[in-house]
Amino acid sequence: MTAKQMESHRLTITIIACAAFLAIGLTGTLTAQPTRSIPVGIVDVNRIVDESALFKSAVEQAKAKRDALQSDLDRQFDELEAKMKTTANQADMLSEEQKQQQSMKFRAERDAIWDDSRKKSAVLEAEQRNLLKPLLEKANVVIEEIAKANSLELIVKRSSVAYHVQAMDITGQVIDKLDKEG
């Protein structure tokens, strides 16, 4: 078989395959399957975190720690700025070499503050994850219980849905049960 004949043969097979797929697509599947509805529920995780008393407490704890970290960072930078102003006021009495040394010292101190802040932030984030993890696990258990009680086969996060009928939303039930069970 020549190259031209092989190309023609491939083209013929491609056309036949496309025609078969088109025919299947227009008439349905080869073996007709009965369709059924799948009961679906929607849950808004952000609303659960924002409105559930259980989550509010954890979020407030995390916010208090974050605010304390920010206050400490602000204090450290204020102290550094005060040192820099004092040095700037004495600049007339310093040689160029001393000014450069002071500048390098202040940059190093600033960098150390930032490094310390990043480390503390990482620890804080880990603490927050550890604090929220059991709460999210509990929320998932409650979601599953409500889904089973309502014969729902699929629960979808609200953030993944463009539109839904309000009756599908089980978020309020989840919040109520979480708060009731504490």
Give a structural overview.
The protein has helices at 3-27, 45-51, 53-89, 96-149, 171-181; strands at 40-43, 154-157. It is flat, with a radius of gyration of 32 Å. Helix 2 packs across helix 3 (53-89), helix 2 (45-51) runs parallel beside helix 5 (171-181) and helix 4 (96-149) packs across helix 5 (171-181). By secondary structure, the chain is mainly alpha-helical. The chain has 5 helices and 2 strands.
What's the short story on this structure?
It is built from 5 helices and 2 strands, in the order αβαααβα. The protein is mainly alpha-helical and 182 residues long.
Structural features:
two-stranded parallel ribbon, 2 strands, 74% helix
Sheet with the most strands?
2 strands, parallel
Cα-atom radius of gyration: 32 Å
**What characteristic shape results from the CA principal axes?**
flat
Count of runs of 4 or more consecutive helical residues = 5
The helix content is over 70%
Could you give the topology of this structure?
Elements lengths: L2 H25 L12 E4 L1 H7 L1 H37 L6 H54 L4 E4 L13 H11 L1
Parallel strand pairs: 1-2
Helix pairs in contact: 2-3, 2-5, 3-4, 4-5
